[in-house]
Design a protein that fits this description.
The chain has one domain. The protein is 79% helix and 0% strand. It has 91 residues and is an all-alpha fold. The mean pLDDT is 91. It is a multi-pass membrane protein. Pfam families: Multi_Drug_Res. It is found in: Cell membrane. Keywords: Cell membrane, Membrane, Transmembrane, Transmembrane helix, Transport.
């Protein structure tokens, strides 16, 4: 159950970060609202996951999967330049 909570928190944080990009600097209403909704959900679930994990371990998983997830989302949905081997290696 603790892993499920952690991954739900990570997914919600990824959704919030994606909505932040879609809000175009908080100039679009619905993506701006969803940014804060998803971040609130993500952090709330993360707090519950911290009851079962040590902070250092949980945050390392949270941060690393968040970075990887946002990078993939950015490359797939928001970058108009083609993916090359250098980008993949640096990723």
């Amino acid at each position: 159950m603790k892993w499920i909570l952690l991954f739900i928190g990570i997914i919600a944080e990824l959704c919030g970060s994606t909505c932040m990009k879609m809000s175009e600097g908080f100039t679009k209403l619905y993506p701006s609202i969803f940014t804060f909704v998803f971040w609130a959900i993500g952090l709330t679930v993360f707090i519950f996951a911290l009851k079962k994990f040590e902070l250092s371990f949980a945050y390392a998983i949270w941060a690393s999967l968040g970075i990887v997830g946002v990078s993939i989302i950015g490359m797939v949905f928001f970058t108009r330049t083609p993916l090359n081997i250098l980008k993949l290696f640096l990723f």
